[in-house]
Structure to design on (540 residues):
């Protein structure tokens, strides 16, 4: 995001700017309004009790109460309405502009060259009134995004598509969408879940309407994956870490109850409650977060990339294109292996890492099957190519098994995830000072990617396309020099991947190869020649 003064060459004309939806102040300020109502109600609890019990109210101070309520309403309208009135936005072929014009003018600009991804978010209150927020992520560190909040659903979808076309370098044929008020009245495409029921009058049933609201689905594009809620709940039962914290909470509660009845009487202290409440709330919060981030998950292949929808109370739709992908992780917890389920997440240059972890925005396949994994990777991930077995990076490893050398990129990654670590070719920690990582970590190169396998209870394969690597750094501390190991830091847009405690010869071989990639492949001016996913015209 960039902020500029009013005197800029590419500033859109005044006619290009539009205001956000009139209900925006309500959506953005409902928490403050609810807090004010609660405070006023608490201060006048006696009057409310008389009204509830006896149906009468002491009218002596009623006019003061009404005057105060009217003043609060006017202040709330002014506080929420003024920012809405002075804030406008415009979408042009140069990018997205958000302007706040009052005593001075402030602009936030998302140049189309820096647009990384676009998402449509629908917080709970906004969903109730049919509004959406468009978030435009930009390449860069920190909070590099521009928000358009709030818009009607049809308008948000239209701007979402237009901005994605701009990011691809296409100038939309319909020009500036913000300057076309009529487009806001266009009806959105009916979701699949709202299809007319058989034998009826052609209108959707109540159940179908409820599903369309709860799942907030979108039928545009080829369906790649749809995760049922039952699978999300089943995956929680098979999550060892979640079961551990659940058992821990039960044990803590039992200890607290035993301690409270130690003297034959139930005693309650603030200190004991302060220690118990966080433990009791942690697991339900963890469960709800997992369910919320996977509820109604649907991914589709569209003309503007992979679009993933998720969310129970607060829903969001994210778009990710192959050219913006910087890193991908494929994970499989221990108890998921018999079910054949996978968890896939991705990183882009403009992604907020904290938001990605807390809200699950980086997950592009929460609990996917092998078929859904194949469909997702084929539409999104650039080809990995065959494994490169470097002579200096094959010490101690057996010959690669047929499961590793799969017939496709997806089979290769599945084999790299499932095979015993000893059968995988590549660099690995070897010293006795790293007893766990030397049995779980391995780093290998393919023709087009860097692969890293790690984890014991939850195995994870990290895939970094070699075309995305910007730099590589080899470091060695005094202890590392003593035992003959070295560390590597592989840098790409938006993050750094660390390889630790591998032999010096392996580190040097990796550094030399990846250094050439960083110096030649990572050229933004040549991004048209970057490898594309197999189903988008790429080749392995």
């Amino acid at each position: 995001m960039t902020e500029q003064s009013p005197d800029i060459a590419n500033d859109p004309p005044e006619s290009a700017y539009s205001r956000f939806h009139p209900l925006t102040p309500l959506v953005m300020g409902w928490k403050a309004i609810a807090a004010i109502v609660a405070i006023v109600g608490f201060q006048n609890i006696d009057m409310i009790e008389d009204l509830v019990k006896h149906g009468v109210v002491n009218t002596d101070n009623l006019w003061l109460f009404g005057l105060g309520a009217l003043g609060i309403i006017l202040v709330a309208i002014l506080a929420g309405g003024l920012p809405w009135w002075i804030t406008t936005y415009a979408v042009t072929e140069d990018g997205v502009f958000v302007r706040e014009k009052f005593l001075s003018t402030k602009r936030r600009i998302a140049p189309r060259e820096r647009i990384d991804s676009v998402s449509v978010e629908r917080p709970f209150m906004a969903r109730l009134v049919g509004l959406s927020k468009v978030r435009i992520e930009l390449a860069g560190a920190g909070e590099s995004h521009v928000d358009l909040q709030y818009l009607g659903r049809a308008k948000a979808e239209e701007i979402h598509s237009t901005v994605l076309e701009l990011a691809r370098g296409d100038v939309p044929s319909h020009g500036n969408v913000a300057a076309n008020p009529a487009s806001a009245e266009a009806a959105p495409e009916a979701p699949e879940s709202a299809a007319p029921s058989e034998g009826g009058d052609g209108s959707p049933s109540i159940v179908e309407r409820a599903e369309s609201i709860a799942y907030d689905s979108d039928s545009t594009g080829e369906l790649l994956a749809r995760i049922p809620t039952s699978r999300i709940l089943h995956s929680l039962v098979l999550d060892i870490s979640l079961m551990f914290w659940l058992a821990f909470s039960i044990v803590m509660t039992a200890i607290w109850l035993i301690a409270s009845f130690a003297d034959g009487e139930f005693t309650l202290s603030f200190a004991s409650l302060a220690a118990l409440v966080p433990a009791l709330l942690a697991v339900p919060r963890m469960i709800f977060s997992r369910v919320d981030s996977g509820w109604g998950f649907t991914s589709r292949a569209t003309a503007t990339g992979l679009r993933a929808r998720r969310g129970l109370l607060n829903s969001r739709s994210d778009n990710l294109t192959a050219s913006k992908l910087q890193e991908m992780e494929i994970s499989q917890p221990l108890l998921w292996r018999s079910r054949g389920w996978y968890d896939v997440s991705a990183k882009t240059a403009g992604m907020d890492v904290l938001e990605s972890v807390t809200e699950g925005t980086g997950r592009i396949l929460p609990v996917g099957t092998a078929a859904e994994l194949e469909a997702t990777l084929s539409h999104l991930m650039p080809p990995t190519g065959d494994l490169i077995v470097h002579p200096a990076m094959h010490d101690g490893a057996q010959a690669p098994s047929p499961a590793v050398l799969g017939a496709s990129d997806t089979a290769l990654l599945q084999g790299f995830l499932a095979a015993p670590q000893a059968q995988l070719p590549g660099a690995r920690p070897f010293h006795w000072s790293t007893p766990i990582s030397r049995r779980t970590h391995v780093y290998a190169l393919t023709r087009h990617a860097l692969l890293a396998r790690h984890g014991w209870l939850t195995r994870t394969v990290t895939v970094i396309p070699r075309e995305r690597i910007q730099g590589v750094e080899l470091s060695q501390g005094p202890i590392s020099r003593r035992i003959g190991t070295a560390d590597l830091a592989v840098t790409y847009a938006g993050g750094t991947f660390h390889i630790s405690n591998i032999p010096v010869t392996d580190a040097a071989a990796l550094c030399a190869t990846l250094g050439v990639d960083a110096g030649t492949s990572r050229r933004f001016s040549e991004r048209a020649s970057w490898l594309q996913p197999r189903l988008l015209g790429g080749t392995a």
